[in-house]
Amino acid sequence: MLKATKRATALAASVVVTALTLAGCSSSDNGGSPVPSSSKAGQAEIDKAMNTPTTLTFWTWVSDIDDEVKLFEQKYPQIKVNVENVGQGPDQYQKLRTALKSGNGAPDLAQIEYQHIPSFTITKSLLNLTPYGAGDLKSNYPEWIWNQVSQDGSVYAVPQDSGPMGHLYRSDIMKKAGITSPPKTWDEYAADAKIVKEKTGSYIGDIASNEPVGMVGLLWQAGAQPFGFDGNKTVTIDVNSAEAKKVYSYWQNLIQQDLVSTDPDFNDQWYQGFSNDKYAGWVTAAWGPLFLQGTVKDTAGKWAAAPLPQWNAGDNVSGNWGGSTNAVLSTTKNPIAAYELAKFINTDPASTKLLNTQQNLFPAMNSVLNEASFTDATSDFFGGQKINELFAQISPTVNTKFQWLPFMDYAYSEFNNTVGNAMTNKGDLSAAADQWQDKLVGYAKQQGFTAQQ
Amino acid sequence: MTVSAGPVPRRSAGATAARRQNRAAYALVLPFIIVFAAMLIVPLAYSAYLSFFRTQLVGGEQFAWLANYLRAFTDPSFLGGLGRMAIFLVIQVPIMLGLALFFALALDSGRIRGSKALRLLFFVPYAVPGVVATLMWGYIYGPDYGPIAQVVRAMGLAAPNLLSSHSILGSMMNIVTWEYVGYNMIIMYAALRAIPQERYEAAEIDGAGQFRIAWSIKIPAIRSAIMLTVIFSIIGTFQLFNEPSLLHTAAPNSVGDDFTPNFYAYNVAFVNQDVNYAGALAFLLGIVIAVISYFVQTAQNRRQGEKR
Fold it and tell me: Secretion signal: which residues (chain A) (predicted)?
C-alpha cells in the first residue's frame, strides 16, 4: 500500500511539474480600446486628459528612465507614472503577451524593439497613434526609422533609439599588421582579415553564430528583403535570396579559412576575447562604442571606428542592428496621456538629451543627431575620435525599406538551429539558409499566414 | 479510525463520534485540498484542455482533437530530445547513483576521519542553486579562457572544446552528477543509519568483512531508498531544464532549443507562442516519465518477489 502511494505520488508529481509551467497562459480577447471622438484628438481634449489625475504604468528595461519620467511628471503634475522593469526584451514580451491574453495587468505603454512591433500589431495589441497626433512626428526622424514604426498611415510607436551599423576596430592591432586605413569594401575586409591573422594571430572580427540580429543587419545593408508583412495575413519570407546568399557565402568563405571567429557573443568568453586581443574588431551598431567602453575598459584608447565596408566601392549604405520604441497598448484606458508620455520621453529636448548622456542610447531623432554638442563630442576610448558624428552620418545611409515578420522570436531561434549551426561547424551557410527558409514558411503556414517567397 | 464494536444501542453513538471525527479530519485537510486544487488540479486540467486546441496567429482558436499529440509523435525535435534524455538516463544515472552509494557506504563504514565535514562537502553542490552552478560550469568549460582549457594548453596539448555539440551531453552529465551526488548520498546514508546494529554484530560473528556486510546486508536493507533515488533521477532527467537553458547562452549552437523535451516545451510555448502544442508535449512527457518509472518499479518488485 505504502509503495503504491509512493509510486502514485511520484507519477503525479512528474506529470504536474511539466504541465504547470504551461498553465496560466490563457487566451481571451482584449478589451476594446477607446477610440478618440474625432479623427484627431483636439488640443482641448489633450489638455483635459493631461489635467485629470491619472496613473500610467510603463514597462521598460531601460535603466534609470525614472529621470526622464520625472521631467514628464513635473510638466504634468496630475499624471503619475509607475515605471516597472519586468525583464529585458523577450522576457518582457512574454509577460506582455500573457497579460494581454488574460485581459488584465497589461501596462499603458511598453518598451518594444523595432523588430518586434509586427509581433504585437498582428494581435492588434498596439494602439494606432495617428489619431493622437503621431503623424506630426514624421519629419523628426530619418526615413528608415519612421518606416520601422509606421505602416499604411498608421503609427504604432514612438522611436527611442537606433543602431545604424558601423565597423569598430583596434587601430593598434591593425597597425601591427601594417594596415593603416580601415577596409572600405568587404573585399578589402577579407584581404585585411588574412593579413591580420597572419601577422598578429588575431581574428579581424567575430561573426557570432548566435546573433541573427547582427546577421540580419548585414543582410539589410546588402539590400536583401528577407522579411515582409502586410499587416494582415500575408508574410513575405525570402531569407535565401540571391542578395542574402551573397552575404552568407562571403562570411562562409572567411569562416572556413579561419579568418573570422564565430564565438557566441555577449557572454564571458566573448568579453575576454576583446580583452585578450583575440578579436581585432567588431562589426556592430552605434550602441557598440559605449558598450565596449563599459565592458573592456583595459583596451581604452586603442579603438577606432569606421563605416561598414561596402559591397561596391564608392557606395555608402548601412544596415541597422537594434534600437527600440515606446508603444501604447491598445488596452490602455488613458490613450492620450500614454501617448503624451511616449512623445515627451522621446522628443522633449531635455529628455532626449538625458537618454543619450545618461542611458547611453544612440539617438533616433534628427535634431539630436545633428546637434553640435552631440556630434562634436570626442571619445577618449576611441583615441579622441568623434564617434557620435560618424554614426550620425551613417544613420541616414541605412537602407530605408526593411520589414519584419510578426514572429521574429521564432525566426531567430530557427536561425540559430540552421545558419548559426552551419557557422559553428564551418559548413554551408547557403544550404542552411534554405533550411531556415523552409522552417519559416512551414511555421507561417501552420499559423495561418499566406507565405510569399 | 477504529469503530468500537459494542452492543446495538452504543453503536449509533460510536458512529456519531466517528462521523464527528471524520468531519474534523476533513476540516483539517480542507486548506490543503483547496490549495492543491487551485494550484495543481485546476491548472493541470486547464493545460490538458488547452492541449486539445489549436491557436493560430491568423485565424484564432479551434478544437483540434488529438492533433497536437499526433504531431508530437512525428516531431523530430521532441523525439530527439527524448532520445537524448534516454542516453542521459542510461549513462548518467547509474554513474551518479553508483557514486552516491559508494560515498554513503564509505561514510557509514565509520572508517573515514572527518566524516561529518565530508558529508557536508558532498552535499554543498546540491545547495548551490542550479543557475549559479551552471553559470560556473559554463565558465569552467570555456574553450578559450576556462580553467580546464588553460591547464590542458599549459601542458602543451590541444584544449578540448567541452561545449561543442559532440561533447555537450557529456559535459551536462558531469554538471548534473556533481549537483546531485550529494543529495542522493544523503538519502542513502540516512537509510543506512536506520539499519539495526545487531545485524552487523551477527555478521561479524559469522566472520563477514566490511565488503561482505555492505553487499549482503547494507545494500539490500536500503533497497527502497535506492529505488526512491532511481525514480527521482528518472523524473529529474526527463525534466532537465535549468542546465540546457543556461548552457544555451554559453553554447547556443550546441544546445539547441529542443535539447531536452522540457526545454523544448518551454520554447514552443514562449518562443513559438504555441501554448496548445506545448501543453500536449508536457503531458506526453509526463506520460513517458510515468511509464518508465512504472516499469522500473515493477521490474524491481518482481526481482524482489523472485528472491523471496
Answer: 1-19
CA dist., res. A336 & res. A209, Å (int):
43
pLDDT score recorded for residue A36: 47
What average pLDDT does the segment A10-31 reach? 40
Which residue bears the cell 543506512? Answer: B192
**ipTM confidence:** 0.77
B56 and A448 in contact by Cβ < 8 A? yes
List, for residues B181-219, the tens digit of each pLDDT value.
Answer: 999 999 999 999 999 888 888 888 888 888 888 888 899
Residues B100 and B215 placed together within one structural domain of the fold? yes
What does the pLDDT look like over A174-192, one tens digit per residue? 999 999 999 999 999 999 9
Inter-chain contact B232–A11, Cβ cutoff 8 Å? no
Q: How many domains does chain B have?
A: 2
Where are the alpha helices (H) located in chain B, listed in sequence order? 8-36, 42-50, 67-73, 76-108, 115-127, 130-141, 147-154, 168-193, 197-205, 210-213, 219-221, 223-238, 242-250, 261-270, 275-307
Closest residue of chain A to B231, computed from CA coordinates: A10
Q: Which of B43, B59, B232 sits opposite A24 (nearest CB)?
A: B43
A346 and A432 assigned to the same domain: no
Q: Do A268 and B228 touch (CB under 8 A)?
A: no
Residues 54-83 of B with CB under 8 A from A: 55-59, 61
Using the Cα atoms of residue A294, residue A261, residue B142 and residue A322 in order, give the sign of their dihedral: positive
| Residue B225 near residue B187 (C-beta atoms within 8 A) | yes
Q: Would an 8 Å CB–CB cutoff place B211 in contact with chain A?
A: no
Count of CB pairs separated by less than 8 Å, A with B: 161
Show the cell assigned to B81: 530530445
The C-alpha cell that represents B6 in the structure block: 459494542
